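Hi F.,

I've been meaning to write this up properly since the lab meeting, where we talked about keeping a consistent format for the predictions we share between groups. The idea is simple: the sequence comes first, exactly as it goes in, then the structure tokens exactly as they come out, then a line or two of notes. No screenshots and no reformatting. I'm using this chain as the first example so we have something concrete to point to.
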Amino acid sequence: QVQLVESGGGLAQAGGSLRLSCAASGRTFSSHVMGWFRQALGKEREFVAAINRNGDSTYYEDSVKGRFTVSRDNAKNTAFLQMNSLNPEDTAVYYCAAGLMPFGSGVITQTPTYATWGQGTQVTVSS
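Output, unedited:
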């Protein structure tokens, strides 16, 4: 089991960039699929992006394709979400999550398939 801590959130202007990090404790980070989700005020938590165990396959929600990039460094037990061309609709609390499920689009977008979650980091984009 891993424990996750996000960092890197903050305030950005529209068109700007932020890079989120998700640091994992434990020795099994590389065994986990890593996902990023976000939850805007008054809305349900939604899938943003995911990356498979060795980092050679990724999957994105349509609205972030071409703007966000998910990556991981298994040697450093850390996952990343690079967010470019931010817009006010990206404002939300962003969570990283870890799961042991197969890397398939039918499961990696679903919150119940992730066993471990970070505490979240606020991203606010001003217009």
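Notes:
The chain has a mean pLDDT of 96.
The radius of gyration is 13 Å.

If this format works for you, I'll send the rest the same way.

G.
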